[in-house]
Amino acid sequence: MTTLATPRAGQRTPGSTAALAVPAAATLLALMNYTAPMATLTETSHGLAAGGTARIWLMSSISLGLAAALLAIGSLADDHGRRRVFTGGAVALAVSSVVCAVAPTAPVFVAGRIVQGAASAALLATGLGIIAATFGAGPRRARATGIWGAMLGLGIALGPIASAGLTAAGNWRAWYWVAAAGSVALGVAARSLAESRADRPRGLDLPGLATMSLGIAALVAAITWGRVGWTRPGVLALFAAAAVLLAAFTAIEARRREPMLDLGLLRRRAFLLSISGALVTGLAVIGVMSYFATVLTLVLGLSTIASALVLAIWSGLSFVTALQARRMPARLPAGRLLGAGLALSAVGEFAMIGLTPDAHWWRFAPGLALSGAGSGLANAMLARVAVDSVPADRASMGSGANNTARYLGASVGVAVVGAIATGSGDAPSALAHGTNVAMLVSAVVALLGAALAAALATGR
């Protein structure tokens, strides 16, 4: 258990308003920042004189920092103080946002985005851990985690719109100054949070932390770089390094008395549900939706702001659905609702197949709405399962593991969707055909994820 007492159902915990509002605001900012370059990639690339390979890193570098740091930071927060790590994440996000805002070259910008990813990991993992430590299991936690999950959808909706609007009004760098100011505000607001940590810290697992972080970083880097050639020696070397490091991490954790990640959790169906559900969400939902706004611009000729507004049908419905997920009957297990969310996302993606250069944007509105509703339901349930599937004093670690799977899946999803969509060429008709194939593959994967979630939810 944690040093912050667990409240009874229905009991209001002192400081609970801040314990929900501050992590929710942090998640909103982190996701807005994560998606901001989607709408301004052309302007950013031009401003930094970035070539084809560099453009890939401009978009994907933040995923490297996120995926590599989430689990490690979540575990550190449980042992050394969630508020302390949260505040450190806010400071790091402010500094790295300034670096991005003033970056003279693409490598400097990419470095800033990687640090932004690690800083965002601190906000995401500890924020959900703070919520779990404040709200006991039951309806109040379900409401709180639903609001936290809703911020994922809202951040995805607002990020491209805000960055595109600021770019149109001035310069693409303006968003990063806004992100820096928001991060400073979060750091100040964190002073209102109560500190929470495990009663019995496990100590710093340096070998596990190093091998896991470096292994995940190598894997995400290989996936990102692989988009320009999967058989390049550097890409293959990164995949090999990832395999060795992650195998070493597994061996280290299996032998430690108090590991950073208790491998025994993998025998829990609820933990497997949290990890697999997040992985499928990243792979089959975030991957294809991250690419769709760009496709609307390239194939249909929509402006960047118009494309972001169309995509907001999906992300906006995700936000609304996640907020309302707490109204679902309590007798329905979170695992079954997660499966239903993934199935609904799949139905929406099936409905979006049929892109052609002469199509109208409203042709995709029903599919975007269905997929958005499914994504919102899945996000709310994933947030709940992430903290309910681990011991109470490891809530931030559970959040970190869940989000690691989500953003690792998103990295793979973006790479696979990009490869399929551009496989027949860059002409609008060829890109439209490739996108339809990618949408079909994503829908099938989402359906398989829904079936897996249902099996894990009902099995023993």
Number of helices: 15
Which percent band covers the strand fraction? under 5%
Radius of gyration: 21 Å
Overall mean confidence score, pLDDT: 86
Secondary-structure element pattern, one letter each: HHHHHHHHHHHHHHH
CATH architecture of the largest domain: Up-down Bundle
Membrane topology: Multi-pass membrane protein
Organism: Actinomadura litoris
Keywords: Membrane, Transmembrane, Transmembrane helix
Pfam family, one: MFS_1
Quickly list its features.
460 residues, mainly alpha, Growth Hormone, Chain: A, globular, MFS transporter, transmembrane, MFS
Structure at a glance:
The chain contains 15 helices and no strands.
Tell me the layout of helices and strands.
Blueprint (H helix, E strand, L loop, with lengths): L15 H20 L5 H8 L3 H29 L1 H21 L3 H29 L4 H31 L4 H16 L16 H20 L7 H23 L13 H32 L3 H21 L9 H18 L13 H24 L6 H27 L6 H31 L2
Helix pairs in contact: 1-5, 1-6, 1-7, 3-4, 3-5, 3-8, 3-14, 4-5, 4-7, 5-6, 5-14, 6-11, 6-13, 8-9, 8-14, 10-11, 10-12, 10-13, 10-14, 10-15, 11-13, 12-13, 12-15, 13-14, 14-15
